[in-house]
Task: inverse folding
């Protein structure tokens, strides 16, 4: 069974791999910060009875959302 021939009239796929904005380096923050054990290696302080580790995980989620939103806003194409 032969593979179908690619359509010569189809436009090439657009890739954003060439985007070398320095803002993209900020995306390493929500990856690296949760990997630092010194930040969450404690039981106190407790917030609403939850140890530091659990509410700090929620803070990491907010950090990731905020960082991703900032990078998106700063790198999106202006029309």
Result:
């Amino acid at each position: 069974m032969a593979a179908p021939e690619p359509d010569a009239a189809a436009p090439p796929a657009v890739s954003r791999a060439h985007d070398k904005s320095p803002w993209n380096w900020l995306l390493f923050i929500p990856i690296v910060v949760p990997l630092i054990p010194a930040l969450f290696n404690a039981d106190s302080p407790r917030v609403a009875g939850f140890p530091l580790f659990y509410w700090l995980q929620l803070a990491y989620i907010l950090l990731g959302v905020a960082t991703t939103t900032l990078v998106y806003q700063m790198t999106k194409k202006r029309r």
